[in-house]
């Protein structure tokens, strides 16, 4: 992208009309965080299925969050563990489950005995959707960031080579077949 001399820079681009490297690296960082989140969620999910303990909990609160484009239903519950006493947890549920529950109802929850903060409403069945979605989104963002970083690096390297070569041979201008970066 070539910026006109004397024109105001476009927001998000440097004075020469290029995407700054920090922008690409921000994509890499965001993608890496999302991948790590997805891996952590998937790890907890597999641990719940393999070694989770199921017990009975009491519903303490029911919350519904409504925004312009989504609705979220959450159940807050409390359960007792053998080693750490009373633990409070919460799980997101579908609208039908939310409508059927009342405060004080008894529900089944699955938790990790060595880490009761990792828990969820229901039996220990494999529910991969949230973790795999976070992992997939992270991979896409990470790949976009790496691709953008590589293309910026390659363009800057090519511009440096064209600039270095044009002084010694007298060629390398716009008509020489090379890319023009000014």
Account of the 3D structure:
The chain is an alpha+beta fold and 182 residues long. The chain has helices at residues 21-51, 95-100, 129-169; strands spanning 53-66, 71-81, 85-93, 106-112, 115-121. A 5-stranded antiparallel beta sheet has the order 3-2-1-4-5. Helix 1 (21-51) runs antiparallel to helix 3. The radius of gyration is 27 Å and the shape is elongated. Mean pLDDT is 84; it is low at 170-182.
What is this structure, in a nutshell?
This protein has 3 helices and 5 strands; from the N terminus they run αβββαββα. By secondary structure, it is an alpha+beta fold. A 5-stranded antiparallel β-sheet has the order 3-2-1-4-5.
Largest sheet: 5 strands, antiparallel
Low-confidence runs? 170-182
Structural class, from helix and strand content? Answer: alpha+beta
The largest beta-sheet arranges its strands as 3-2-1-4-5
Quickly count the helices: 3
Keywords:
182 residues; alpha+beta; five-stranded antiparallel beta sheet; 43% helix; elongated; disordered C terminus
How would the blueprint of this fold be written?
Layout: H1 21-51, E1 53-66, E2 71-81, E3 85-93, H2 95-100, E4 106-112, E5 115-121, H3 129-169
Antiparallel strand pairs: 1-2, 1-4, 2-3, 4-5
Helix pairs in contact: 1-3
């Amino acid at each position: 992208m070539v910026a006109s001399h004397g024109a105001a820079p476009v927001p998000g681009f440097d004075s020469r009309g290029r995407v700054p490297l920090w922008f690409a690296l921000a994509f890499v960082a965001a993608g890496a965080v999302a991948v790590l989140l997805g891996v952590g969620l998937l790890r907890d999910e597999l641990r719940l299925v393999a070694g989770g303990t199921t017990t009975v909990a009491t519903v303490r609160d029911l919350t519904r969050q409504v925004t312009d484009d989504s609705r979220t239903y959450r159940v807050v519950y409390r359960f007792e563990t053998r080693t750490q006493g009373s633990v409070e947890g919460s799980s997101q549920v579908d609208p039908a489950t939310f409508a059927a529950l009342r405060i004080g109802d008894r529900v089944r929850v699955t938790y990790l005995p060595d880490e009761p903060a990792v828990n969820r409403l229901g039996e220990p069945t494999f529910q991969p959707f949230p973790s795999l979605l976070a992992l997939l989104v992270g991979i896409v963002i990470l790949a976009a960031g790496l691709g953008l970083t590589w293309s910026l690096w390659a363009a800057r390297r090519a511009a440096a080579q064209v600039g270095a070569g044009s002084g010694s041979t007298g060629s390398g201008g716009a008509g020489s077949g090379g890319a023009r970066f000014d």
